[in-house]
Amino acid sequence: MTRSSHRPRKRFGQNFLHDPGVIRRILDAIAPRPDDPLVEIGPGQGALTRPLLETVNQLDVVELDRDLLPQLEALDVDGKLRVHNADALRFDFCPLRAGEARLRLIGNLPYNISTPLLFHLMEQLACIADMHFMLQKEVVDRITAVPGSKTYGRLGVMLHYYCRAERLFSVPPGAFHPAPKVESAIVRLVPHPEPPVAVNDVQQLAWLVNRLFSQRRKMLRHSLKGYLSEARLRELGIDPTERPEQLDLAAFATLANAL
């Protein structure tokens, strides 16, 4: 594989994957089948696009950088590739679905938009089967964090409500051009068939999680003052002196439903 003359753009968060060993591990994790409705977000110079086209019958890619479009379109030698020049943060993925099969999303996500993009995708899970993303290792740590850990926070709680998250493997900076200053990791996200906890209002849950983790050093009796009394917290089976990083998803659901 040869690199093109395209210069990676910082404003697009471009770090192009080029390591053949890492590419093979990602493909093995995805295990694409010919009829899979695959969608690649941020294909860049096509490091994953090329081998995917050798396996699947059709591939959609969403790329914001117009200068990369000719390079991507040149890969379409047999009509399998559909290139969408669009901002993934505003893109509606569900219309790409044909028939009953749900979409399989993959991508080396720009680190500067990864969190808002993940929340954007959570709104479209009805048409998504699974997701395999390259993210900054710190973000994957937050996604897969458990209660009581330093990395446990808003992102992990909300994504656990929507998906089962599994960290697959780490990727060193040298696997990219240019090499980023941080380590990366691959995460697999699989939407739950049904939410793991009963929540009356998901927006209420999101508000609560955001409020508590914006004051993560405060005890619940302080951060929820004026909303739920200490006596009410005890009635719900929650210790008023606990802090948000000590609560599991079920406890957040209990609080949200009580508000």
Molecular structure report:
- Helix content is 30%, strand content 19%.
- It is of the alpha/beta class and 259 residues long.
- α7 crosses α10 (249-258).
- The radius of gyration is 20 Å and the shape is elongated.
Short summary of the structure?
With 259 residues, the protein is α/β, with parallel strands linked by helices. The protein contains 10 helices and 9 strands.
Structural descriptors:
seven-stranded mixed β-sheet, two-stranded antiparallel ribbon, 10 helices, alpha/beta, 9 strands, 259 residues
Q: Strand order, biggest sheet? A: 4-3-2-5-6-9-7
Distance between the termini: 56 Å
SS-based structural class?
alpha/beta
Strand content: 15-25%
Q: For the CA atoms, what is the radius of gyration?
A: 20 Å
Arithmetic mean pLDDT: 92
Largest sheet: 7 strands, mixed
Q: What's the β-strand tally?
A: 9
Helix content: 25-40%
Order of secondary-structure elements: EHEHEHEEHEHHEEEHHHH
H/I helix tally: 10
* Morphology: elongated
Low-confidence stretches: 8-13
Secondary structure topology:
Layout: E1 16-17, H1 20-30, E2 38-41, H2 49-53, E3 59-63, H3 69-73, E4 81-85, E5 103-108, H4 114-122, E6 128-136, H5 137-143, H6 154-162, E7 163-171, E8 176-177, E9 184-191, H7 202-213, H8 220-223, H9 230-235, H10 249-258
Parallel strand pairs: 2-3, 2-5, 3-4, 5-6
Antiparallel strand pairs: 1-8, 6-9, 7-9
